[in-house]
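ok, trying the design again with the full structure, not the truncated one.
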């Protein structure tokens, strides 16, 4: 690998680490706050609208946040890391794996 590829690899690694840190922060902080607030029995039982309580609303918002951040993490990962990974794989020489010898299409495969 030349110097440009090493720099690109370092930037890609930094992007991946930042994405992971953002994902954990965005989901960890509300989880910790929710667990802390749930220790007080009056707070989650506070009615918001009819049968909907603050605890139920907080749980639904936390699930929505998890889905949204997971989608964002996957989109960002696909956009930033996959092109680099594909460029590395295209430069790597093709080698046979141990599973190729046992492939059904292989002429040396044992038939029973």
């Amino acid at each position: 690998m030349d110097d440009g590829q090493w720099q690109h690899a370092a930037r890609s690694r930094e992007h991946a680490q930042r994405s992971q840190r953002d994902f954990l922060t965005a989901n960890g902080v509300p989880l910790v706050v929710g667990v802390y607030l749930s220790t007080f029995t009056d707070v989650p039982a506070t009615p918001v609208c009819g049968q909907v309580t603050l605890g139920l609303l907080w749980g639904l918002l936390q699930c929505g946040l998890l889905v949204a951040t997971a989608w964002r993490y996957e989109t960002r990962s696909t956009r930033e890391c996959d092109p680099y990974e594909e460029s590395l794989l295209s430069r790597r020489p093709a080698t046979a794996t141990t599973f190729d010898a046992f492939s059904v299409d292989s002429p040396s495969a044992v038939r029973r």
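Keeping the full-length input from now on. The chain is about 65% helix and 5% strand.
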